[in-house]
Design brief:
Elements (H helix, E strand, L loop, with lengths): L4 H23 L4 H13 L21 E3 L8 E7 L4 E3 L12 E5 L3 E3 L14 E5 L19 E3 L6 E2 L13 E3 L4 E2 L16 E3 L6 E2 L13 E3 L4 E5 L19 E3 L8
Parallel strand pairs: 2-4, 3-5, 4-6, 6-7, 7-9, 8-10, 9-11, 11-13, 12-14, 14-15
Antiparallel strand pairs: 1-2
InterPro entries: Leu-rich_rpt (IPR001611), LRR_dom_sf (IPR032675), LRR_N_plant-typ (IPR013210), PGIP (IPR051848)
Main location: other
Pfam family, one: LRR_8
Amino acid sequence: MDHTPNTTLLFSFLFFITYLITIASSKDLCNQNDKNTLLKIKKSLNNPYHLASWDPESDCCSWYCLECGDATVNYRVISLTIFAGQISGQIPPEVGDLPYIQRLTFHKLTNITGQIPSTITKLKHLRFLTLSRLNLTGPVPEFLKQLMNLEYLNLSFNQLSGSIPSSLSSLPKLTGIDLSRNKLTGTIPESFGSFAAEVPYLILSHNQLSGSIPKSLGNNDFQDGFNVSYNRLCGPIPTGGSLQRFDYYTYFHNKCLCGAPLDSCK
C-alpha cells in the first residue's frame, strides 16, 4: 500500500508520542507516596550526605539504600537498608508508612538513639528487621508480636534493657533471633522452648540475664546457632535435649552455670 507524505508524517508523529509516553512512564517507577515518605525519612535524619542520591527530581527506585519490587507490587519500596555513614537522630516513625517493605535495616549507625518506633507494626509484609550496632534504648517492645510475617529479628549491639518478651515465641514465621550485646535482664522466657515456628538461631549472649536455662529450650535444634554466654545464668545446663551438644563457649562467663560442657555441678 502506498503511503502519502501526510500518512507517513502521521505515523512518525504517533510513534514519537508513544516513545515519549514510554520514556515518561519508565522515568519514574517509584510510587509517589513512597517517595514522599522517603523524603520525610531523609529530612528526619537531617538530610545526611549518605542519602544524597535521594533527589526528589529522580526516580526513587534508583536511590541508594533501597529496592523497589517489580510490577506485581506496582514498584513499591520493598527494602530499606541504611548502613554506616555519619547519620544521627532517631529511627524515623515514617518507616511505618512504607506498607510493602519486607526488609528494614539500620546498621552501624552509633548516633541513632531513642526507642524502636511503634509505627513499625504497620509493616504487615515485614520479613527481616535488623536494628543493630545503633544506640537504641528502652525495651525490646512487646508490640513486635504484631509482625506476623517476621522471619528474622536482629536487635544486637544496642543499649536495650528490661526483659525479653515471651510473646516473641508466638510469631508464626520467626526463624532467627539475635538480642546479643544489650542490657537485657530477667530470665530467658520459658516459652522459647515452644516457638510457633522452628527457630534454628537464638543468640542472647552479652546481656544481664539471670535465673536458669529453661529445660524446654532443649526441644529446639538451634542448628544455625545458639549462645547464652556472658550473662548471669545459674544452675545446671538441662540434659536430655539438644543443649549439651554445644561447646564451652556457648555458655561460659555466667554466674554459676554448670554441667556439660562446663564443669560438673557441685
